[in-house]
């Protein structure tokens, strides 16, 4: 093993079956109520689940004046749409769709300012990756927005209680996604 304390070692997080979400009892009653209300609203109206909170800590904006976003999704067409649209919105966008690419992108400097993360990834769960990111000294403070079709109350609770800064359901509206990104990054 390398002596570098910031060396990526997510190997065990990517192997084996996806982690299971906690029960609703694993969170506060206020969190349970909020998720259940948002999920009911989504099911009744067809609108996106869009839960967001401001990131506690942010890295200073890059010298180029653009925030960097790493989009992680197993669907290449979704990644291409995100890349094009977010690039037009003034962000520096990187994408990854599999374990090797994710690890390579996370090792690149500078680290991303924000990660958009799908839950259903090939051979592992985005929830597991989120937890590993939160436990890692170099990536623990990077804001993460879950962008996924996994929208059960348990899924949303799992993401938010394990450190996601936002949760946006697929299919999503770009206006809702960009508003979520701006809120998390504290962009006026």
Strand order of the largest sheet: 1-8-7-4-2-3
Radius of gyration based on Cα positions: 16 Å
Low-confidence stretches: 1-7, 13-26
CATH superfamily: Response regulator
User: Which band does the percent of strand residues land in?
Assistant: 15-25%
| Outline type | globular
Under the CATH scheme, which class?
Answer: Alpha Beta
**Amount of helix:** 25-40%
CATH architecture: 3-Layer(aba) Sandwich
Q: Write down the overall mean pLDDT.
A: 78
Q: Spell out the helices and strands N to C.
A: HHEEHEHEEEHEHEH
Q: How many discrete structural domains?
A: 1
Instruction: Describe the largest sheet.
Output: 6 strands, mixed
- What structural class results from the helix and strand content? alpha/beta
Question: Which features characterize this protein?
Answer:
188 residues, alpha/beta, Rossmann fold, six-stranded mixed β-sheet, two-stranded antiparallel ribbon, 7 helices, 39% helix
């Amino acid at each position: 093993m390398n002596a570098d304390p910031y060396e990526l070692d997510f190997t065990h997080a990517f192997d084996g079956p996806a982690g299971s979400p906690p029960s609703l009892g694993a969170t506060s009653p206020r969190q349970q109520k909020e998720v259940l209300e948002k999920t009911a609203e989504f099911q009744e109206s067809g609108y996106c689940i869009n839960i967001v909170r401001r990131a506690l800590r942010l890295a200073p904006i890059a010298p180029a004046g653009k925030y960097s976003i790493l989009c992680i999704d197993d669907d290449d067409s979704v990644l291409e749409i995100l890349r094009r649209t977010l690039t037009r919105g003034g962000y520096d966008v990187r994408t990854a769709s599999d374990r090797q690419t994710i690890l390579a992108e996370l090792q690149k400097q500078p680290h991303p300012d924000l990660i958009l993360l799908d839950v259903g990834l090939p051979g592992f769960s985005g929830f597991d990756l989120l937890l590993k990111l939160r436990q890692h000294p170099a990536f623990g403070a990077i804001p993460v927005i879950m962008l996924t079709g996994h929208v059960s109350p348990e899924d949303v609770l799992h993401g938010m209680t394990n450190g996601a800064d936002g949760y946006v359901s697929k299919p999503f509206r770009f206006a809702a996604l960009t508003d979520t990104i701006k809120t998390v990054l504290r962009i006026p």
